[in-house]
Write a structure and sequence with these properties.
The protein is an alpha+beta fold. Helices cover about 45% and strands about 20% of the residues. It has a three-stranded antiparallel β-sheet. Strand 1 and strand 2 form a beta hairpin.
Length: about 80
Protein backbone atom coordinates (compact mmCIF):
# COMPACT_ATOMS: atom_id res chain seq x y z
CA UNK A 1 0.00 0.00 0.00
CA UNK A 2 1.46 3.34 -1.06
CA UNK A 3 0.84 6.27 1.31
CA UNK A 4 1.02 9.94 0.37
CA UNK A 5 0.50 13.01 2.55
CA UNK A 6 -1.34 15.69 0.55
CA UNK A 7 -0.48 19.38 0.83
CA UNK A 8 -3.11 22.12 0.77
CA UNK A 9 -6.23 19.94 1.03
CA UNK A 10 -8.61 18.77 3.74
CA UNK A 11 -7.56 15.15 3.23
CA UNK A 12 -4.59 14.14 5.36
CA UNK A 13 -3.52 10.96 3.58
CA UNK A 14 -4.05 9.14 0.31
CA UNK A 15 -3.51 5.38 0.20
CA UNK A 16 -3.61 3.10 -2.83
CA UNK A 17 -2.18 -0.03 -4.44
CA UNK A 18 -0.90 -0.51 -7.98
CA UNK A 19 -0.87 -3.94 -9.61
CA UNK A 20 1.67 -5.37 -12.06
CA UNK A 21 -0.26 -3.87 -15.00
CA UNK A 22 -0.09 -0.31 -13.52
CA UNK A 23 -3.77 -0.36 -12.55
CA UNK A 24 -4.78 1.44 -9.35
CA UNK A 25 -6.79 -0.29 -6.61
CA UNK A 26 -8.12 0.34 -3.12
CA UNK A 27 -7.81 4.14 -3.19
CA UNK A 28 -8.61 5.64 0.20
CA UNK A 29 -8.55 9.23 1.35
CA UNK A 30 -8.20 9.95 5.06
CA UNK A 31 -10.06 13.14 5.95
CA UNK A 32 -11.67 15.46 3.45
CA UNK A 33 -15.16 15.39 1.93
CA UNK A 34 -16.13 11.75 2.34
CA UNK A 35 -18.77 11.44 -0.39
CA UNK A 36 -16.73 13.19 -3.08
CA UNK A 37 -13.60 11.25 -2.23
CA UNK A 38 -15.43 7.92 -2.22
CA UNK A 39 -16.71 8.86 -5.67
CA UNK A 40 -13.21 9.63 -6.94
CA UNK A 41 -11.94 6.34 -5.50
CA UNK A 42 -14.68 4.38 -7.28
CA UNK A 43 -14.15 6.20 -10.58
CA UNK A 44 -10.41 5.49 -10.68
CA UNK A 45 -10.61 1.86 -9.47
CA UNK A 46 -8.88 -0.45 -11.95
CA UNK A 47 -7.74 2.39 -14.24
CA UNK A 48 -4.20 2.91 -15.56
CA UNK A 49 -2.18 5.22 -13.31
CA UNK A 50 -0.82 7.25 -16.24
CA UNK A 51 -4.35 7.94 -17.45
CA UNK A 52 -5.50 8.96 -13.97
CA UNK A 53 -2.50 11.23 -13.46
CA UNK A 54 -3.11 13.00 -16.79
CA UNK A 55 -6.84 13.48 -16.17
CA UNK A 56 -6.60 14.71 -12.56
CA UNK A 57 -3.43 16.80 -12.71
CA UNK A 58 -4.20 20.49 -12.34
CA UNK A 59 -7.76 20.21 -11.00
CA UNK A 60 -8.06 23.22 -8.70
CA UNK A 61 -10.10 23.95 -5.58
CA UNK A 62 -8.99 25.94 -2.54
CA UNK A 63 -5.29 26.67 -2.19
CA UNK A 64 -4.53 26.19 -5.90
CA UNK A 65 -4.80 22.39 -5.60
CA UNK A 66 -7.48 19.79 -4.84
CA UNK A 67 -7.82 16.21 -3.68
CA UNK A 68 -7.90 14.96 -7.31
CA UNK A 69 -4.77 17.02 -8.07
CA UNK A 70 -3.11 15.60 -4.97
CA UNK A 71 -3.97 12.06 -6.14
CA UNK A 72 -2.20 12.89 -9.41
CA UNK A 73 0.81 14.09 -7.38
CA UNK A 74 0.68 10.92 -5.28
CA UNK A 75 0.79 8.83 -8.46
CA UNK A 76 3.77 10.87 -9.73
CA UNK A 77 5.59 10.27 -6.45
CA UNK A 78 4.74 6.56 -6.59
CA UNK A 79 6.20 6.33 -10.11
CA UNK A 80 9.34 8.26 -9.10
CA UNK A 81 9.96 5.96 -6.15
CA UNK A 82 9.31 2.88 -8.28
CA UNK A 83 11.85 4.01 -10.89
CA UNK A 84 14.46 4.54 -8.14
CA UNK A 85 14.21 0.86 -7.17
Amino acid sequence: MFTYSPIGTCSRQILFEVDSENKIHNVRFIGGCSGNLQGIARLVEGKDIDEIEAILKGVRCKGNTSCPDQLAKAIAEYKARKSEN
